[in-house]
Amino acid sequence: MRSTGTSYPASTIAAIDSTAPAAPSTDAPEGTDATPATDVASSTTEAPRQVRIAVLGDSWSLEPTPAWPAVATDLLADEDIDATFVVDARSLTGYVVDGAAGTSFVDRAANVDPDADVVVVFGGFDDRDGDVASVSLAAASTFGTIRDLAPGA
Q1: pLDDT tens for residues 36-93?
Q2: Do the beta carbons of residue 75 and residue 142 sit within 8 Å?
Q3: How far apart (Å, rounded) are the C-alpha atoms in residues 21 and 38?
Q4: Alpha-carbon span 88 to 82, nearest angstrom
Q5: pLDDT classification of 126: cutoffs 50, 70, 90
Q6: pLDDT tier for residue 16 given thresholds of 50, 70 and 90
Q7: How far is CA 40 from the centre of its chain?
């Protein structure tokens, strides 16, 4: 795991994380040179948590290389989270702007992965010259569609 600059004793971590095995006792009977036994079953590491993340985005989800989903994958892996990103990103698109691909976020929201644990809508810069009311309505429609398709996200 990536260090956050703060160190905690193992006993504190075990108290915070109830899945962590308790540190073995080092109390040996007086006059003996016994070492505490380690429970092999409790020392096995758990598999990383699996998370499926759907991304509906514009070019910022594609570039610069590496784009933010690739960076996020590495950062989440450092935290024992195995993230799978399903990215639907197209350049020059937004809530009302459909760009070269001819599809806006509203159009593409219907394709969001229904099994996603998390849905990220990342973009809208290309809507900067659009009518505020139109962008607002399109955003509400986009989020409503996503909520209906992926209610668990």
Answers
A1: 454 444 445 778 899 999 999 999 998 888 899 999 999 999 999 999 999 999 999 9
A2: no
A3: 10
A4: 19
A5: very high
A6: very low
A7: 31
Here the tokens at position 118 are 């998390």
Tell me which residue has tokens 């760009």.
99
Task: Match 């644990």 to its residue by tokens.
Answer: 117
- Measured over the CA atoms of residue 51, residue 115, residue 57 and residue 137, the dihedral's sign is negative
Q: How far apart are CA 48 and CA 77, in angstroms?
A: 8
Q: d(Cα 80, Cα 83) in Å, to the nearest integer? A: 9
Please choose, from the candidates 67, 13, 64, the residue with its C-alpha nearest in 3D space to the C-alpha of residue 4: 13
pLDDT in tens, 88-115: 999 999 999 998 889 999 999 999 999 9
What is the sign of the dihedral through the CA atoms of 93, 99, 103 and 106?
A: positive
How many angstroms separate the CA atoms of 113 and 152, rounded? Answer: 11
Q: What letters, b where the CB count within 10 A reaches 16 and e where it falls short, cover 122-137? A: bbbebbeebeeeebee
User: Of the candidates 140, 151, 89, which has an alpha carbon nearest to the alpha carbon of residue 118?
Assistant: 151
